[in-house]
């Protein structure tokens, strides 16, 4: 019996190896650019627009399932770098250092911009002054007190809004006093609506597309007009001011695909950067990266209705 054990063991090993390869191949074949499942890490400040895109995409391609995972910017980037997430939505491109880490892993991320977004300053509705200078906020971030601001309110210490404002103010840490942080943009909006003198810092998408339970709360806040560092005029985070490049707190939205193969990440990126996806961006109140075209039918004469 011993003389048959080695050949028999080899046959069993080859059989199991072939079965595992076949299983792996089948699992890969289950996902294409228009079908399969995908976990999508999303910067929490722009979750609303992403939810809209996913809903229409899944409603168009029934075999595609995308699970949205809202996180702080730091968590989203870390998940990408550690390959816990293969596709993500961010408010910035990858840095040189981050791209170098992907190069070491022989991964070539596909980065697709798809919308122009903005950070907004909000205040309590009881505050009749809807104007604020960006320099005033930067001074506050640098620890210089100002009677106009009782406090700044952020969504999360690791969020993209905090990172953005720290870079503008050129500080490594936010002040220990006068600055508050929660976990979500909704919490910021609620806190500002209940406290006079507080300035909230949010992604404007949460104002344009509030969750149903936040509709009444939204009516209790103002979105402030902002004067840039090199401007004498005040501008608001509207599509018009974003398009003419005047609003000083504008930023772009990106989808970063690190799948490394033709999977659902490519299909979804093509969708949101395409005509339908750009129209969804336009309807959301943000500015599409590529303005959707319109077809006009011009007639040489007016056709009157028959009596």
Automatic annotation (TrEMBL):
Signal peptide: none annotated. The keyword Signal applies. Gene3D superfamilies: Periplasmic binding protein-like II. This is PstS family phosphate ABC transporter substrate-binding protein. Keywords: Signal. Residues 36-274 form the PBP domain. PANTHER family: PERIPLASMIC PHOSPHATE BINDING COMPONENT OF PHOSPHATE ABC TRANSPORTER, PHOSPHATE-BINDING PROTEIN PSTS. InterPro entries: PBP_domain, Phosphate_ABC_transporter.
């Amino acid at each position: 019996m011993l003389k048959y054990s080695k050949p028999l063991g080899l046959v069993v090993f080859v059989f199991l190896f072939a079965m595992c390869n076949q299983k792996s191949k089948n699992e890969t074949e289950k996902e294409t650019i228009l079908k399969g499942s995908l976990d999508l890490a999303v910067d929490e400040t722009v979750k609303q627009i992403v939810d809209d895109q996913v809903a229409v995409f899944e409603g168009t391609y029934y075999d595609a399932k995308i699970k949205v995972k809202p996180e702080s910017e730091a968590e989203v980037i870390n998940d990408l770098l550690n390959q816990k997430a293969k596709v993500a939505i961010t408010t910035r491109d990858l840095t040189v250092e981050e791209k170098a880490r992907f190069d070491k892993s022989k991964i070539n991320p596909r980065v697709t911009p798809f919308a122009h977004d903005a950070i907004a300053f909000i205040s309590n509705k009881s505050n009749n002054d809807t104007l604020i200078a960006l320099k005033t906020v930067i001074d506050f971030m640098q620890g210089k007190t100002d009677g106009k601001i009782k406090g700044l309110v952020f969504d999360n210490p690791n969020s993209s809004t905090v990172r953005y404002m720290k870079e503008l103010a050129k500080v490594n840490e936010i002040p220990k006093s006068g600055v508050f942080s929660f976990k979500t943009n909704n919490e910021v909006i609620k806190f500002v609506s209940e406290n006079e003198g507080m300035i909230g810092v949010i992604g404007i998408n949460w104002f344009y597309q509030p969750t149903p339970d936040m509709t009444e709360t939204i009516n209790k806040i103002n979105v402030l007009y902002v004067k840039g560092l090199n401007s004498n005029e005040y501008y608001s985070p509207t599509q018009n001011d974003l398009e003419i490049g005047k609003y000083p707190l504008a930023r772009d939205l990106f989808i970063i695909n690190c799948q490394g193969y033709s999977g659902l990440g490519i299909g979804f990126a093509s969708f949101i950067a395409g005509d339908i996806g750009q129209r969804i961006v336009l309807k959301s109140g943000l500015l599409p990266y590529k303005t959707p075209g319109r077809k006009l039918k011009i007639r040489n004469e007016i056709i009157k209705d028959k009596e």
